[in-house]
Specification:
171 residues, alpha+beta, four-stranded antiparallel β-sheet
Length: 171
């Protein structure tokens, strides 16, 4: 992340924030297919990873809250004082928008890079389960052997009962 205008191939977890120096109508036009790519001087972008945000729409949350809570940017990376001075619209681009292709951004003069952020990665490592139900009970071989013994005893008792009833009835 040395150069915020250079995107590495396969880049993950980077968010680039641009202030938009344009009229609201022009900012809304950036929602059209290919418009943001054209403004950044790149061939193609995935629109699912691009947000054009009217700062007035964020109300109490603010841009700093949006970055921290909505984008998992650590609070220590966010310059709240700088973000509160912004007005109008901003453009937020996440790494997957570049489709794993290395590229160099050549933003139009209306795009002013505010900052580059690193998202907090999700910890997918499993946590050990420490509950009574997760503890092993009886090994399967022992449980199967015990079941077979109980079944054999029940069968023997039933045969004895059937034999006794047969003898009583015949005599």
């Amino acid at each position: 992340m040395n150069d915020p205008l250079r995107v590495r191939a396969g880049e993950r977890g980077v968010i680039r924030l641009f202030a938009l120096d344009m009229a609201p109508e022009q900012a809304h036009f950036l929602g059209e297919p290919g418009a943001v790519a054209q403004m950044l001087g790149v061939a193609d972008l995935d629109p699912d990873h691009i947000d054009i945000i009217a700062l007035a729409d964020l109300e109490q949350l603010g841009l700093a809250g949006y970055l921290a809570e909505g984008c998992a940017v650590p609070v220590g990376q966010i310059d709240q004082a700088r973000l509160t001075t912004l007005t109008g619209h901003v453009l937020l681009i996440r790494s997957p928008a570049f489709r794993d292709v290395a590229t160099i951004l050549k933003p139009a003069p209306q795009l002013n890079l505010i900052s580059t952020y690193a998202e907090t990665p999700t910890d997918w490592s499993p946590k050990p389960i420490r509950t009574d139900s997760s503890k092993p009970r009886m090994p399967p071989q022992i449980a199967r052997d015990a079941t077979h013994r109980v079944g054999a005893i029940v069968f023997a008792v039933m045969m004895l009962l059937v034999g006794t009833v047969t003898i009583v009835v015949l005599t």
